[in-house]
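Researcher: Good morning. I'm working through a list of sequences from a screen, and I'd like to move beyond sequence-only analysis. For each chain I'm collecting a predicted structure so we can compare shapes side by side. This is the next one on the list. No need for commentary yet; just the structure.
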Amino acid sequence: MIYHLFVEPGPLGDLLPGTNVFRYITFRTAWGLITALVVAYLVFPPFINWMKQQKMNQIIRNDGPESHLLNKIGTPTMGGVCILLGIAVSTLLWARLDEPVTWMGLTVMLGYGAIGFYDDWKKVMYQSSDGLAGRWKLVLQTLIGGGVVAWAYGTGVVDASLPVPFLREGSIDFAHLWDGAPTWLGWLYPAFAVFILVGASNAVNLTDGLDGLAIGPVMTCAATYGAIGYLAGNARFAGYLGIPYVAGVGELTVFSFAIVGAGLGFLWYNAYPAQVFMGDVGSLSLGGTLAVISILTKHEILLAIVGGIFVLEALSVIIQVVSFKTTGKRVFAMAPIHHHYEKKGWSEPKIIVRFWILSIILALVGLSTLKLR
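Model: Good morning. Structure tokens for this chain:
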């Protein structure tokens, strides 16, 4: 909004000196981060108090770690509402609203947030850990994700190619897998993109089991993809690095760092011991948002590296379920894997910080692939 007021069409640009600075993505990104942080930081205290008054607290599962039944009962949930508010306000203020990628990112974030909101609301209203049935979550995630991917694919924002990390100008082109391949195979890419959206959304949801555990890697991933978006949206930088150039995708830098800002505001209250949890409204939406940013920047496979913590958490659940159903034995003391380390005697803060460290290392590895091509 600010860009359009002072730059293009800029009706107020001539009234104030120095407003040309709003033209620069880096400036708007910095203030977008600050805006999201301030909004989240200011909104959380009244939100937490109101949630406590309404007794809308996190439902703790009986089959989880015993310490959770003692330490986490009575903690308000649905803090993701404040996170999304901070991100949305910041993005609408500082990003260019004439770029389709801005609206695509917001659509996934708010759409997946609505799914998570209903799931959380159902849990607290009925005092049950069941919430929205898993199959309906998947259906709704697929519909929303599929709609946005079709929008991006149909309007040419993204194409059917899938860049491969570590390979300069190397990619899988679904529309031309071999000579004479039917053109309809190009639609395999949107199907793959929807899989990434649904998978990432649920992987972050599985990771959100300890105070601050999920938001740390989310911020790391968002910052990494913010940098990638800036590079991919600049033809000169993209050409030098040999990565796909996507016109307008630089605006996702503002969006990505708004996630970082809102995440910092949330972490102030979610740091151990947490005063509030993000709930599914936060985890489902943030996971889907990271995925859509990876898709729009054409660095989808890289998400498996940068978001390796989420992949590890999801794989631990899959391995545990498959092992128990096929052999009757459990590989981990408890899944997701962060509960395994709790069972092994690691303190909660130790698990959280070590997972954060791994997330930062993975982000650096992911960024290094931009040069190792």
